[in-house]
Amino acid sequence: MNLPPSPRRPPLHSESLAHSPPPCSRPPPSSSPAGSRRLEEILPPWAVLKRMDPSRPLAEQVRNARVLIPTTGMVGAADIAAAADLRLVAQPAAGYNNIDVAAAVRRGVPVTIAPGYNSHSVAEVALVMILMLSRRVDEARAVFGRREPIGGPVGHELHGKRLGIVGMGRVGGCLAEAARGLGMEVLGVTSTSPRADLEALLAASHVVSLHCPLTPATAGLIGATELALMRPGAILINCARGSVLQRDALWAALQSGKLRGVGLDTHWAEPAPTDDPLYGHPAVLALPHLGSISAEVYERFAGILADNIVRCKEGRELLHRLA
């Protein structure tokens, strides 16, 4: 619910929330100092940005918040209820599976998202991982570090190979355009595609890249059955959400040698646990949600956040309102 401006109201507090990892863990990417600093630079003087302590329960820290900025942090019903004068939940991303939207709706609190603001950035990271795994870049760097004779490791070109994109939205479309520029054939499925199309894509593709949103229909979408359909020696990329891919099934596929390479920029928990052996497998290239990290993404996210915070205070229509 949008509230009209009032000079008697206390300052609007825009609080950046984080997942609650152990104190020594890294904060989620969207709550990085660089992103927060840019938002602080363009916020009006009456808006105060407060960063959350991931080692403390969120509900204890948001009692005076007027706006919550979840990023990758979990915002549940208890957290929404704890903010007595909450007026807006502003998510600087297209994904919102970490927010209890129904709880916000029950309180009359609007939820906004930022669709398409990091599409090119995520597509670039997917392409980087595809190239690194295809050309065995990490192994090549190790070979160079040992100053071994030139001649290995022997990778594969992307030209003439088939890329299967699961989720042909903004990110998938950007990746498809780049891949075609490298001479790849592109297959794609969407949320409305029949199951048979997904199975055909998995069986035919040399590289499969996941870019679908996390919904009840896509949770665990890629499991043992789907991985078994993939070509031996295929590459799998996940820039969607960690839970789209079944972790144990992926581990089994890696152990069996089914997959030549796996690129993960999204994870089942963020920050990812340090003791998961999957991340130490030589075929796995893991990145820290790099698709959401660029100067340009931070600039766009800060702009939409600041705009909606001002719109909320002034009672104007919100941009990209979800609920």
UniProtKB/TrEMBL annotation:
Using the record's annotation, list all stretches that form the D-isomer specific 2-hydroxyacid dehydrogenase NAD-binding domain: 128-291
Check the record and name the InterPro entries matching this protein.
D-isomer_2_OHA_DH_cat_dom, D-isomer_DH_CS, D-isomer_DH_NAD-bd, NAD(P)-bd_dom_sf
What sections of the sequence does the record tag as coiled-coil?
none
Matching entries from Gene3D superfamilies are given as:
NAD(P)-binding Rossmann-like Domain
Name of protein? Glyoxylate reductase
Question: Where does the record place Pro residues bias?
Answer: 20-31
Record-linked Pfam families: 2-Hacid_dh, 2-Hacid_dh_C
Q: Does the keyword Oxidoreductase apply?
A: yes
Q: Which family does it belong to?
A: Belongs to the D-isomer specific 2-hydroxyacid dehydrogenase family.
Q: Where is this region: Disordered?
A: 1-37
Name the source's superkingdom.
Eukaryota
User: What species does this protein belong to?
Assistant: Tetrabaena socialis
